[in-house]
Amino acid sequence: MNRRTLLRRTAAASVALPLAGCLRSGDDEAGLTVAESTYEEGENGNVVVVVTVSNPSGREASGTLYVNTEFDDEAYTRDREVTLGPNETTVVRVEYDVAYDDVTNPSWNTDLVED
Predict the structure, then answer these.
(1) pLDDT grade, residue 39 (50/70/90)?
(2) What CA–CA distance (Å, rounded) separates 10 from 100?
(3) Which region holds residue 28: left if phi is over 0, alpha if psi is between -120 and 50, else beta?
(4) Which pLDDT value is given to residue 9?
(5) Considering the entire predicted model, what is its pTM?
(6) Bridge partners of 41?
């Protein structure tokens, strides 16, 4: 390869690479994410799993939040539909018919499937 061709290609790459992220259409941006989850006692004494869902993208996003729990060897799954505008965050509270004081070994995980 001659030197001029190498210099031209290097110059073209140095201009194109910094712009690559700016030219994205936005369709492949990250959408809904679970920022945090915890559990607490609800107003009526039952267990409530509290999930913070965020949409860090610049577009509206919708999906289904699945909360899979196990309280003292008893498994439960609940789902909630979530729709958030660009850069919004919301808190989803999922209550169970399980007394908070009766739970000694809680575990849970979340799954968020975007539409």
Answers:
(1) very high
(2) 64
(3) alpha
(4) 53
(5) 0.74
(6) 47
